[in-house]
Design brief:
By secondary structure, the protein is mainly beta. It has one helix and seven strands, in the order ββββαβββ. The chain has one helix at residues 60-69; strands at 7-13, 18-21, 27-40, 47-59, 75-88, 94-107, 124-125. A hairpin with a 5-residue loop joins strand 2 and strand 3 (27-40). The two termini are 12 Å apart.
Length: 144
């Protein structure tokens, strides 16, 4: 059976990225973005909104780009996958968190001017290309 773990988000950063480096030197950036749904309430005719917050982690060169060019309020497009990890809180209690691992990011709003002047350019960093899935190379036994 084929499985899909794909997330696509378009939203605005709630705060500046947090960038740190792992012991092996790999950059890790974390951001939080807001996505807002709006609708008209059928019973009252009133316009309603609901905002969801999403935590996204980036790694490697993409994490460096995120840390250098994104600021609070920036509008971005993200593709990635859901990841769940466990950690220990300050009280020693084991907790789980589900977040998005960002694989692709594109800045939708004008980027801030980087240190040293000049205009920032839209950045789109992707994973290396993979062979496209076709019906011929699927190992799936469908029940119908």
């Amino acid at each position: 059976m084929a499985y899909v773990n794909k997330v696509i988000l378009v939203g605005n950063l709630g705060r500046d990225p947090e960038t740190r480096y792992a012991p092996n030197g790999e950059a890790i950036s974390n951001i939080t973005i807001a996505t807002t749904d709006s609708w008209k309430d059928k019973s009252t005719g009133e316009r309603k909104e609901r905002t969801e917050w999403h935590r996204i982690s980036f790694f490697g060169r993409l994490a460096e780009v995120v840390g250098m060019h994104l600021k609070k309020g920036a509008s971005i497009y993200i593709e990635g996958s859901l990841r769940t990890r466990k950690y220990m809180d300050k009280d020693g209690t084991e907790k789980f968190i589900t977040e998005v691992r960002g694989d692709t990011m594109q800045m939708l709003s004008k980027a801030s001017t980087p240190a040293g002047g000049g205009n920032a350019v839209q950045a789109r960093t992707q994973q290396p290309a993979r062979a496209p899935e076709t019906w011929d190379n699927m190992d799936d036994d469908l029940p119908f």
